Amino acid sequence: MSAAGTAVAASGSAKPTVLAAASLTKVFPEIQPNAKYTFGGSGELETDIEQGAPADVFAAASPTQPQELYAKGLVTKPVEFATNTLVMIVPKSNPAGIKSVADITKPGVKIVICNETVPCGDYARNAFTNLGITKPAMKNVVSQTTDVTQTVAQVATGQADVGFVYITDAKAAGSKVKVVKLPAKAKPGAEDYIAVVKSGKNQAAAQAFVRRVLSKAGQAKLRAAGFGKR
């Protein structure tokens, strides 16, 4: 498994092995405790599956990685299971005085984003493009992380003045960070997709896991965590 991933296992039988985006770290175990989880950047998890790592289910913070695996015949047809929203977060004390996206292009502002192989990094770059601020914004990027959890951590600890993460991650961070919403022009919407890995050894458990995520109860857990409706 990717070194960046965080493995979480629960007790019980017929555990599906689930590789999922870091933004799902808290909510998936609430939906199904009886599963073996590895959380990390969707791009790295995609590579793990391509290289034959044990996996029954793949859940990504974007349609891109599941669709690429589907095109290669490695997973079943991906299904959207939730939506999310990209936001800016700043440290609780907000030392740089960030109040809007216009402030992040000022000289000296330290920005952290996910790297381009991770959905949160792709969404951030698209937001820069949509807002016409790619050059000055990228000039202020001081760190690129392997997943959204690391981005949150760097902002919360004051290593950066602003970071681009999902609203769900900002909510999970609680009072450690403050949220600054992006304008509609940034097109901050995000989509989460899930698929069964064809080489998985627990096909029945994998299908049951997907059904649970898509169920009324599973969707309620996602809503409570801040995810939007699929």
Provide structural commentary.
The chain folds into two domains: 6-82 and 191-224, Periplasmic binding protein-like II (D-Maltodextrin-Binding Protein, domain 2, 3-Layer(aba) Sandwich); 84-186, 3-Layer(aba) Sandwich (D-Maltodextrin-Binding Protein, domain 2). Helix content is 34%, strand content 25%. It has helices at 27-31, 42-50, 64-71, 119-131, 134-139, 148-156, 167-173, 203-214, 216-224, and strands at residues 6-9, 17-21, 36-40, 57-60, 79-91, 111-114, 141-145, 162-166, 177-180, 189-196. Strands 1, 2, 3, 4, 5, 6, 7, 8, 9 and 10 form a ten-stranded mixed sheet that branches. Helix 1 links the parallel strand 2 and strand 3 (36-40). The two termini are 29 Å apart.
Summed over residues and divided by their number, the pLDDT gives a mean of: 94
Helix content: 25-40%
CATH class of the largest domain: Alpha Beta
How much beta, percentage-wise?
15-25%
Please tell me what the overall shape is.
elongated
Question: How large, in whole angstroms, is the Cα Rg?
Answer: 17 Å
What is the third-level CATH name, the topology of the largest domain? Answer: D-Maltodextrin-Binding Protein, domain 2
Question: How many helix segments?
Answer: 9
Largest sheet: 10 strands, mixed
Short description:
This protein is of the alpha/beta class and 230 residues long. 34% of the residues lie in helices and 25% in strands. It has 2 domains: 111 residues, Periplasmic binding protein-like II (D-Maltodextrin-Binding Protein, domain 2); 103 residues, Periplasmic binding protein-like II (D-Maltodextrin-Binding Protein, domain 2), CATH 3.40.190.
